[in-house]
Amino acid sequence: MKNPFKKLFWHLSPSKIDPKKDKNLLIHQTLAYGSMADIKKLFKIYSKTKIKKVFLEGKRGIYDSRAVAWLKLVFEIKHLDQNKYVKKI
Fold first, then answer.
1. What would the pLDDT profile of 55-64 be if each residue is shown by its tens digit?
2. In whole angstroms, what is the distance from residue 30 CA to residue 40 CA?
3. I need a surface site. Which of 12, 36, 77, 85 has the fewest CB within 10 A?
4. Helix, strand, coil percentages in the chain from 3-state DSSP, rounded to 5
5. DSSP per-residue codes, 49-83
6. In total, how many domains does the chain have?
7. How far apart are CA 71 and CA 85, in angstroms?
8. Which of the four pLDDT bands, split at 50, 70 and 90, describes residue 3?
9. Structural domain includes residue 3
10. 55 domain-assigned
């Protein structure tokens, strides 16, 4: 796979990234650290439903509180335990 997220996955060889096998890594890393352009690319690779499902499965402590607030709006999530997602400083 051509690596459309080079700056997010600089440590991985593009040939080693598998969109099916590595979807959790790709989705969480892009939502947490990617630009809007990166997130748009993500939505071209995966459906909104799939991205929301992976996000809700959670990845403890990698998200900024502003990113979680934005994702709640994008995915129309009413109630969410932000402590499950937000970085602790």
1. 998 777 789 8
2. 10
3. 36
4. 55, 0, 45
5. HHHHHHHHH--TT-B-HHHHHHHHHHTT-S---GG
6. 1
7. 11
8. low
9. no
10. yes
Residue 5 lies in a domain: no
Q: Specify the pLDDT at position 6.
A: 64
The encoded tokens of residue 64 equal 């900024």
| Higher pLDDT among residues 21 and 74, named by residue | 74
The residue segments making up the domain with residue 79 are 21-84
Cα–Cα distance, 25 to 54 (Å, whole number): 10
Residue 74 lies in a domain: yes
Average pLDDT over every residue of 46-67: 90
Sole residue written with tokens 């969109």: 19
Buried b (16+ CB within 10 A) or exposed e, 26-39: bbbbbbbebeeebb
pLDDT in tens, 8-30: 776 676 667 778 888 998 899 89
